[in-house]
Amino acid sequence: MRKVAIIGLGQTPVREHWDYSIRQLAVQALTEAMKDAGRSNLDALFVGNMLSGALAEQEHLGALIADYAGYAGIEAVKIEAACASGGAAVRQAVLAVASGQVDTAAAVGVEKLTEFSGKFTSKGLATAADADYEASIGLSFAALNALMMQRYMYEYKVPKDDFAVFPINAHHNARFNPNAMFQYDITLRQYRKAKPIADPINLLDSSPISDGAAALIIVPLDKVKGQDNAVEVVACEMATDTLDLANRKNAVWLKAAEKSSKKAYSVAGVGPGDIDLFEMHDAFSIVSVLSLEACGFSEAGQTLKKANEGYFKIDGQLPVSTMGGLKGRGHPVGATGVYQILEAAMQIRQEAPGNIQVPDVRYAMAQNIGGSGATIVTTILSK
Amino acid sequence: MDIPRYWRLRNQRYRLEGSRCKECGSICFPPRFLCPHCKSAEMEPYELKGRGKIYSYTIIHQAPDIFDKNVPYTVALIDLEEGARITAQLTDIDPDDVSIGMPVEMVIRKIYEDGENGPIQYGYKFRPILFTDAGS
User: ω before A13 within 30° of 0 (cis)?
Assistant: First the structure.
């Protein structure tokens, strides 16, 4: 297998994009990424998306986006793994180039969640769960995460207030990211008063419904080594777990996060202590905690203590959600995994806005989580 | 939920029918075609008694469209006596009185009505155990 690198980055701001369609958002991100890469030829396109069929009445995004972006005729396919669709698309692009079958591949994540009312969108998002035994008996996606959070609070005897540090940090970092949806701070007081969604999860624990697209151009490393815009993908590994939460013995341990991160560490030849920043999947505050624990960044039950001591802030030992994370930047589901890796690459290229640029990044990690932890992709980038 | 699917799920929804592995004896809900523990394909239907304890729970305030008129309602993960864990709504209890470890039992209740002309869909919910048998 060949080593691979990312040489092009493109993104749209994460917003409620009433004026733009799926194809416009995707083409915008892909075009920007190709320009950034200085390339005009593309061999293969992998589109990460979850709900285009349900919410925009449009499937078959591979061919559609290839055509509208000016690459009609190339290999192109949509990759779906719920909220991990973006990371899964990057993994396919990486494999395609690493295998030697393809010389230039693009991974584009795109999602448009605001075509219908929020409740219709919630129903769509709930299809990431088990349709027969979770969604159809009344569980929303937030409810599944709430079941994990409630159990975590019980097992480790932690108060709800302790979780506020994650959304507060995410919003604070998002302030400096022009592409983030929420460029403002929130306070503990606001967190306490936020509208309940599924107890103990409230609105400020939850990432927003949003639209956006992000794109990466992936090529063999040996052709671009030493170039300023080249970032090596040292690992991009996927693992799965049971789709339903009930069939996991321990609902507060993300086995697929542990497996995919261990695989990634092993492929990259590093350990958690070598990682300089972590773009984590903070779809809900509890997911931040479980992801950090399963990846070996803190011991089970100790994460909130560490977080409240400033460990995960921009100037802390392991900065997380540096561009706002899902909570602050926004969570355009199938695009999220691509945004995370793009942001990690920006950090390595020292292109993050001043206040949120992490100094001297050697290894940056991103983790994209689908469903309540059923599909997890962990990616490690390096200079 | 469409009718064929509802019909297919009747043994699970009405009788809590899971599966038991003939090789290693492990019990699953929902039923499986292959044992997740020993990979045996020798699985037989197994009716669960529907008694257990709450492992975790949440009170839902913002629900998917079809459950919107039921809010707030409570759903829980329940550890059944036979060893399987199930996701279900709770009923006949004030959400504020729910706690982890609480003993509950299965009952059949309306899950939802599919519009004015659609079928009413029933299935399992769990309620606090009202009377305990001697010794149990």
Answer: no
